[in-house]
């Protein structure tokens, strides 16, 4: 089968097309013919940084090839001996073996049955592939940790990006009042997916405009390491600060609690004990049309390097999809 292998840690051009053996499946796994792959910022971090690669891909040192990627949609073509959830021909999607070796940049993948869910018939493979790691991150942050509810005022940083554009739509689904933050070029996009207000981080300071948020979802990889301090200022007493990038220091967490009764929670997309339930919920939202994947680029498999060149800018609008 065709796959994209990482020749060596470095530039996007190190991702090259190769012929590799089909993966073998364990008893609890299915073989999936991949129809669409989604690319995330973490893919670019591990591609260019050996320490990240070792930590996230969990390199053993004896791999014949390094094949990145953790997000797919596709069709089940073979069942492991103990698989009960799927049958051959089922259309599925999911974020699997993260962290670990999912080897998703390929024509076929081997995935555990409990890390995939059925793709609704009326949702395209591309839209489903997008709604995996990015959608789950927004869900884990806002729903599982943030306990978002009707009437909450929520600031979503990075509202035009992969995680943020799902976050805006999930927050609206739960009846929240959403303040989306991105650069001015993406104002219409963010308001168009349902945000009630827009803040341009390049010309405005969000913490001067909002000081009564119930939840701030902070996914900003910023040179300004005080970004979570600013997010704390935007919260009302009793609010929740969800930090996706920074691991907040104990002193910061304790101060937020004692001065403002604000909970500060670090968000990681995995482990997520309610993953299957959450993905099935997302599948229903995609099927009903209440949540949509905005796809800004689709590339053929051999042009994976183009997807990486864009995703590493950290200015992606919605999702980038690659099709084998
Ligand atoms: N903790 C976890 O488990 C986890 C999981 C997944 C992702 N992440 C991280 O979360 C971040 C977002 O992921 P993603 O997939 O959404 O990335 P993405 O698709 O590249 O989107 C990044 C977004 O951030 C916006 N942005 C950049 N600087 C900003 C600022 N100062 N204030 C507000 N928004 C700003 C960009 O808007 P403009 O283009 O308009 O500038 C863009 O919308 C990444 O750093 C990713 O690594 C963490």
From TrEMBL:
Residues 10-322 form the Enoyl reductase (ER) domain. It holds the Pfam family ADH_zinc_N_2. SMART domains: PKS_ER. Coiled coil: none annotated. GO terms for molecular function: oxidoreductase activity. It comes from the Bacteria. Keywords: NADP. The keyword NADP applies. This is NADP-dependent oxidoreductase.
